[in-house]
Amino acid sequence: MSKPVPGPRPQRAAARERPEKWHRPPMRIESNECISCDACIAACPPSLGAVFRRDGGLVIFPELCSGCGLCTGPTCPVDCIQEDPDWSPTSQDLWPLALGPADPYTDPETRLTLDRVRRW
Ligand code: SF4
Ligand code: SF4
Known about the structure:
Layout: H1 9-15, E1 27-29, H2 39-43, E2 51-54, E3 57-60, E4 81-83, H3 108-118
Antiparallel strand pairs: 1-4, 2-3
One iron/sulfur cluster (SF4) binds at residues 29, 34-40, 58, 75-78, 80-81.
């Protein structure tokens, strides 16, 4: 029996799998260049919600990143977000960031902060 295709974000986060129908590669942050401005978190649509803060910087979960590109180009002031066709799965110890209390796409207080970032 074939596996179900991961659906909307909560299901994708629970399945920890990237939908096969996403043909664009996910993005990756060059963390040594990142200035932690949070613009990429704010730019990523909440329905995808792929960028997280962690100790030592920001990270994109490839399984949640459709490769839409909204976080790249002029969004990132130092242009340190690139396509990652050879992506590796998100390490298991990071997954609690998604859908947990610090999830920037579900926590209302963080959403307010992100709205301010968007208005820059
Ligand atoms: S490419 Fe799109 S889905 Fe991926 S992190 Fe950037 S804004 Fe989010
Ligand atoms: S937009 Fe660029 S510089 Fe700002 S937090 Fe994201 S990756 Fe870092």
